[in-house]
Inverse folding.
């Protein structure tokens, strides 16, 4: 991250300024530090947080949220937002479960179908935002409702239970390679892949340019509409993958599956250091944000706090992260502007 | 910069005495923005029943003074006296409470509210229980428009009304609170001749009713037509103040431009073949029938007042906006420039007016900013290599002498002058044949300015054709091989370097019919 490493604090800055500056620049690192500290504290009260069963459960759930958060992060970097991600996940999860319970497609093809469905839903979002210039918050609020509505139309009051699904399908959730859950490997692969795309390709550069300065990007000949469309399509694709994972993980799927997940996903993105106003942030940060939030949920259960706190906590975490960002950015700009070159 | 002042003229306003105190007296007002001294010790008086013109070049401090009177800015020193009483205008509401009304160049209205609501905004006629008395409001607005002899409907929405009608709404607003001082800030900038005539008759009627009027303008013909007194600002100082009957257009222009010219290092260079040939270029509402050519190694200056259509021409040449008519020939090909990418590919580069808005990605490092427009060319196989980017960025940044800790430094950490150099570096990286510079030295300090001038000069010497758009007259005069002057979207003069003086350019820019008039319009 050139953005992160470029400015070195001068000796003139106080220790607090330097600490804040470092935190602003190394969001990923500070997130890991806070996460480890939190797990350590909880472990004093509830040592089972460190049991291998618990770590597996948490990391597998975090992987699902992380995959969705990676797509969301890219959308947010372009100054947009995708609120429909939970409906995409729910619809994909149910569609795949339906196809499998009726034996229409074999497991690999059914999963591919689910991912493809997610891509199509994301492309629809992209067309509405990039071609028809509907503000993304409105466009995806609309499709959130539409995709969920389609889910209800197909599902009705029915649900698909784990017993109706092929055993090989639900077993993927517990599958491991070299002791690491497959879900985690998938999430890591996606995170690394998209981090590389954002950092090392011309497309990645244009994603940041569009989010940071849309008018300027247009003057430079960057096709902002195309970038927006592609980013929403990717978000749909990853939403599809996350939806398939959700279906595998929970087994029992109905029309309301994955309701409320958008809040978690956006919280993960914001906590992970992606600027809610676009232009900066990383997908690795977003994935770590998902891990962080999932651990908080897990810790609440282990220290026997009510699950009802969880919803409020996600909201609180978003507010803290954004407020902290505002403070850090101001601090950062002050420290920079104080030492401008002549 | 050393500025000659005519002390006698400068004091004229301050020494006028009378039995009745002036409606508004400005005494020794100074105002500084950062390092820029916008106003220095300005004093003038505005009497009831008098129209005073406030003229000056772009950046002379007219708008700053108008904004101080509107309560938007606070003076650093000096006093305002209203009807003889020293007054502090803390904010626009305060100014209005003291009877000062300002009609801005761009009317500050609420487009989704009705005309009547806009007229009475801020002091809506209230009925019982503080509810809005819609009837009183509409009747009040209708009465005002009748008084002004304007056929405006109080129920109509403001959105979609012409600029002229919107200004009349602001004037009507000033009548609702019995303003004793009316400030018109370049009100005619976007009005047609007919609309100007209507505005003038209304302004005269207000004067006859005893309102003191300050008419900010840079159209000298209007000053003589409408105003009783004229005050000239130059570089933030009052340089002349006299009754218009004692002044001539030549006097005003001399006062407006008469300043010491800073010298720029212009390297003379051989001028080659015609690179760019523009003929009959038009875009409705922006400019009409613009024709000119640019040769290799030549700097063509675009002079004119703000809003004359210079930036609009540049935007069409760079494919941001599309033309309605005309031919653009670059080299030996007719070009359409459907998009900035097309223009860039053909060899046109455009350094925009607002480097923050359009020119830089502040979050990006210097290297990333420089390579942004050429990424597809630099890395045709999609993957970028940081090392290549850094060396390309470093090459251009070093060539332009950007003061930086390294090419990884974010653009946001640079000073204005260095940011401008990064923008220049970025456009040079596209290896253009034609470079359009829109106000390249606005807002940067004098040292950086001289450096930017040196760079521009060297670029021309290397064979680029350069279009230099600038409102800074000494800059245009010193840098350009030829000067094209625009006024209200038309070319009013094309002046060779040898013939160009501040006076001849200013004549054409204010459409006074300069030494080489090509087009005049009513």
């Amino acid at each position: 991250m050139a953005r992160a490493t470029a400015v070195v604090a001068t000796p003139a800055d106080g220790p607090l300024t330097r600490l804040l500056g470092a935190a602003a620049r190394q969001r990923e690192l500070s997130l890991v530090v806070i996460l480890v500290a939190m797990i350590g504290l909880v472990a004093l009260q509830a040592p089972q947080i460190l049991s291998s069963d618990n770590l597996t459960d948490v990391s597998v759930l975090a992987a699902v949220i992380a995959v969705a958060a990676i797509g969301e992060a890219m959308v947010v970097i372009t100054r947009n937002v995708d609120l429909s991600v939970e409906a995409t996940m729910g619809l994909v999860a149910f569609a795949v479960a339906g196809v499998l319970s009726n034996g229409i497609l074999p497991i690999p093809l059914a999963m591919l179908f689910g991912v493809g469905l997610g891509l199509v839903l994301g492309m629809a979002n992209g067309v509405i935002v990039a071609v028809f210039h509907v503000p993304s918050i409105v466009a995806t609020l609309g499709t959130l409702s539409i995709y969920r509505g389609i889910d209800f139309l197909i599902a009705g009051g029915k649900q698909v239970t784990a017993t109706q699904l092929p055993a090989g399908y639900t077993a993927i959730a517990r599958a491991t390679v070299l002791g690491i859950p497959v879900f985690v490997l998938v999430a890591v692969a996606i995170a690394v892949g998209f981090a590389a795309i954002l950092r090392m390709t011309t497309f990645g550069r244009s994603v940041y340019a569009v989010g940071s300065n849309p008018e300027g990007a247009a003057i430079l000949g960057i096709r902002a509409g195309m970038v927006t469309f592609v980013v929403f399509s990717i978000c749909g694709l990853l939403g599809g993958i996350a939806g398939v994972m959700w279906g595998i993980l929970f087994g029992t799927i109905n029309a309301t599956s994955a309701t409320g997940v958008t809040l978690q996903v956006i919280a993960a993105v914001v906590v992970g250091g992606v600027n809610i106003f676009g232009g900066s942030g990383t997908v690795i940060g977003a994935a770590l944000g998902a891990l962080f939030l999932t651990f908080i949920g897990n810790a609440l259960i282990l220290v026997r706090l009510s699950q009802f706190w969880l919803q409020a906590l996600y909201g609180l975490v978003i507010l803290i992260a954004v407020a902290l960002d505002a403070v850090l950015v101001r601090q950062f700009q002050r420290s920079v502007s104080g030492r401008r070159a002549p | 910069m050393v500025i000659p002042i005519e002390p006698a003229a400068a004091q004229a306003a301050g020494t006028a005495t009378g039995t009745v105190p002036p409606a508004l007296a400005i005494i020794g007002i100074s105002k500084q923005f950062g390092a820029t001294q916008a106003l220095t010790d300005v004093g003038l008086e505005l009497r009831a029943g008098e129209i005073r013109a406030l003229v000056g070049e772009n950046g002379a401090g007219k708008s700053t003074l108008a904004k101080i009177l509107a309560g938007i800015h606070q003076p650093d020193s000096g006093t305002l006296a209203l009807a003889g009483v020293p007054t502090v205008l803390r904010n626009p509401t305060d100014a209005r409470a003291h009877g000062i009304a300002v009609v801005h160049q761009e009317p500050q209205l609420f487009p989704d509210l009705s005309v009547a609501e806009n007229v009475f905004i801020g002091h809506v006629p209230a009925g019982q229980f503080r509810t809005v008395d819609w009837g009183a409001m509409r009747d009040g607005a209708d009465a005002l428009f009748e008084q002004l002899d304007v056929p405006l409907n109080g129920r109509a929405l403001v959105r979609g009304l012409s600029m002229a009608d919107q200004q009349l709404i602001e004037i009507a607003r000033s009548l609702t609170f019995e303003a004793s001082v009316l400030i018109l800030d370049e009100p005619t900038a976007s009005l047609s001749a007919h609309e100007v005539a209507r505005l003038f008759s209304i302004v005269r009627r207000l004067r006859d009713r005893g309102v003191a009027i300050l008419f900010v303008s840079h159209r000298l013909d209007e000053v003589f037509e409408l105003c009783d007194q004229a005050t000239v600002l130059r570089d933030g100082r009052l340089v002349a103040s006299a009754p218009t009957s004692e002044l001539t257009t030549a006097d005003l222009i001399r006062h407006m431009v008469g300043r010491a010219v800073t010298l720029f290092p212009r390297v003379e260079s051989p001028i080659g073949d015609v690179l760019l040939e523009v003929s009959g270029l038009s875009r409705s509402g922006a400019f009409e029938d613009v024709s000119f050519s640019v040769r290799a190694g030549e700097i063509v200056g675009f002079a004119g007042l703000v809003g004359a259509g210079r930036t609009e021409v540049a935007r069409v040449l760079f494919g941001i906006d599309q033309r309605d008519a005309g031919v653009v020939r670059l080299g030996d090909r007719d070009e359409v420039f459907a998009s900035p990418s097309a223009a860039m590919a053909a060899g046109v580069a455009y350094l925009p007016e607002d480097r923050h808005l359009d020119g830089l990605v502040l979050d990006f490092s210097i290297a990333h900013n420089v390579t942004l427009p050429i990424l597809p060319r630099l890395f045709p196989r999609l993957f970028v290599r940081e090392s290549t980017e850094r060396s390309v960025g470093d090459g251009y940044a070093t060539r332009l002498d950007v003061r930086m800790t390294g090419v990884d430094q974010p653009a946001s950490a640079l000073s204005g002058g260095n940011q401008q150099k990064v923008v220049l570096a970025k456009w040079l990286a596209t290896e253009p044949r034609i470079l359009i510079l829109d106000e390249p030295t606005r807002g940067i300090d004098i040292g950086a300015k001289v450096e930017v001038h040196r760079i521009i000069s060297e670029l021309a010497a290397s064979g680029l054709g350069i279009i230099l758009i600038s409102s800074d007259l000494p800059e245009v005069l010193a840098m350009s091989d030829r000067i094209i002057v625009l006024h209200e979207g038309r070319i009013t003069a094309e002046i060779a370097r040898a013939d160009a003086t501040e006076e001849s350019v200013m004549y054409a820019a204010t459409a006074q019919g300069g030494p080489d008039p090509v087009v005049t319009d009513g």
Summary: The mean pLDDT of chain B is 83. Chain B has 19 helices and 20 strands. The first helix of chain B runs from residue 7 to 15. The CA atoms of residues 252 and 377 of chain B lie 53 Å apart.
